[in-house]
Specification:
Layout lengths: L22 E3 L2 E4 L1 H11 L7 E3 L1 H9 L2 H14 L3 E5 L7 H7 L4 E6 L2 H10 L6 E5 L13 E7 L8 H11 E15 H14 L18 H7 L4 E10 L2 E4 L1 H21 L5 H15 L9 E3 L2 E10 L7
Parallel strand pairs: 4-5, 4-7, 5-6, 7-8
Antiparallel strand pairs: 1-2, 2-3, 8-12, 9-12, 10-11
Helix pairs in contact: 3-4, 7-9, 7-10, 9-10
Length: 320
């Protein structure tokens, strides 16, 4: 995500560098803490400290969520939506897929961070039916009531500070019988492996991340939020399972460091000079024992499960 990249992310107004673009250093992107945080969100959502990331890893992680982007785009197309508001578009999905598949549909790609919108603009280049906006998923005051046929939230809702308000806002901007497509993680095996490797290295369980991609993984978590929102109901839900392809051992380790990096840096600062090497060794062993090796010899994690819930707004009184 997911991206995303997703809804309300912390804004660091105090630092002019916080929103600056990543820059190349020795063939890698040197990223601000905020950008690492956003990258992790674009993938599956969690915070990370300053890091240096190979652009190929950035692309691979984001592209891993393509099955969900494609499923949302398929359902939006099936419903024949003429206007779509994408919340937490991150580097531009599923906005771009929808805009390509539905050239007559107006797609509004939004994110709370300007830096992500710049990436989305690059991805959607040449598509005349995409507009862009800066918006948090729990404040859609820039968009009118009953103004869009569809709202997409791919790996977004679990990161929104006020989820109830977010769904009320989504219901407000939807036209009668309009639909919202909400994707959340139910299981993330790579997150589990990252945490297990940290626990094996440090001897204690790492804390739950402050920004938790699993915040809505509980049974009926999203359904209960929808039930508490006026004028909308759950139309249907589906579960998607897909792998994260991580590349070779070095790439898998670099991917894990997006999340584990702060803890490893602290260990190194406390005198454990080879903390990263030890961590990566434990990580690759765990991946191998959990069957995380593809036929081509690359590491992958297969136990990732996401829910896609479709929420529909009620008909107007005159239609009943």
């Amino acid at each position: 995500s997911s991206h995303s990249a997703q809804a309300s992310k912390p804004s660091d107004r105090s630092s002019p560098l916080a929103l600056s673009s990543p820059h190349m250093m020795n063939g890698h992107w040197r990223m601000s803490p905020l950008h690492c945080w956003l990258l992790a969100l674009a993938w599956f959502g969690s915070g990370a400290a300053a890091c240096s990331i190979d652009p190929a890893i950035y692309v691979r992680l984001f592209e891993n969520n393509m099955p969900m982007f494609q499923e949302i785009a398929r359902l939006v197309q099936e419903a024949g939506a003429e206007s779509v508001l994408d919340l937490g578009t991150g580097p531009g999905e599923p906005s771009t897929l929808i805009a390509k598949a539905m050239p007559k549909t107006k797609v509004i790609a939004t994110d709370v961070q300007p830096a992500m919108i710049e990436k989305a603009k690059v991805r959607a280049r040449g598509l005349p039916n995409v507009e862009f906006g800066i918006a948090s998923a729990d404040d859609l005051s820039g968009y009118g009531a009953a103004s869009v046929d569809a709202v997409t939230m791919c790996y977004v809702l679990m990161f929104v500070p006020d989820r109830a308000r977010s769904l009320r806002e989504v219901a407000r901007v939807l036209k009668p019988r309009g639909r919202a497509y909400i994707a959340v993680w139910k299981r993330l095996e790579f997150m589990e492996v990252i945490q297990q490797a940290l626990e094996a290295l440090t001897g204690s369980a790492p804390p739950t991340p402050a920004v938790n991609p699993m915040a809505l993984s509980g049974e009926h978590a999203v359904e209960e939020l929808v039930a508490a929102t006026p004028d909308v109901t759950v139309k249907f839900e589906t579960m998607l399972k897909y792998s994260f392809k991580l590349g070779d051992a070095a790439s898998a380790c670099d991917s894990a460091m997006i999340i584990a990096g702060p803890a490893i840096s602290k260990l190194a600062a406390d005198g454990k000079a080879n903390a990263k090497e030890e961590y990566c060794k434990i990580l690759t062993e765990l991946l191998e024992t959990s069957g995380g090796m593809s036929a081509s010899g690359e590491y992958e994690v297969r136990g990732n499960t996401a829910q896609l819930l479709v929420m529909e707004k009620s008909r107007t009184q005159s239609e009943l």
